[in-house]
Amino acid sequence: MKIRLILLLSLVLCAMGMEAKKYPEIKFERVMVDLGTFCMDDPVQKCVFKFTNVGKAKLVINAVRVTCGCTSVDYPKDFIAPGGSGEIVVTYDGSGKMPGRFKKSIAIQTNSKEELTRVYIQGDMTDVPVSKKAQ
Question: Which end of the chain has the smaller Cβ count within 10 Å, N or C?
């Protein structure tokens, strides 16, 4: 009888422990930003990825990795509370690059259940100045 009671208690405590684990969850307003067409005379382009922690625990961005040295990022280093929001600023620098279409991936590593999230930038750098009307 004691063994059954101990086993039942163990199962209940184990189930409560699994249920009690709360995770943060990062949700982006958008995961793709099109920088459009721009001239190689103005090769530096910036965009912002806004996000919210829709989870039930503090969110931490552990690392942000880019696929190319032409892309850099600035991101919050502090905790993001549940319901809180933040921004990841991405800068593309096409200096010294050949004109043409590009697509870059940015990998965001967090402490959420799905540790890795990707966002993307794309655009078209031309060697011909883009008129103000065409934009």
Answer: N
Q: What is the pLDDT of residues 18-57, one digit of tens each?
A: 545 799 999 999 999 999 999 999 999 999 999 999 999 9
Q: Is 27 exposed, middle or buried (0-12, 13-18, 19+ CB in 10 A)?
A: middle
Q: Is the dihedral of CA 63, 68, 74, 75 positive or negative?
A: negative
Reduce the DSSP state of residue 41 to 3 states and report it. coil
Whole-angstrom Cα distance, residue 101 to residue 17?
Answer: 50
Q: Could you tell me where the DSSP H helices lie in 21-135?
A: none
Residues of the chain with pLDDT under 50: 19, 133, 135
- The residue written with tokens 């259940």 in the block is 113
Q: Please list, in sequence order, all residues whose beta carbon lies within 8 angstroms of the beta carbon of residue 113, skipping any fewer than 6 positions away.
A: 23, 25
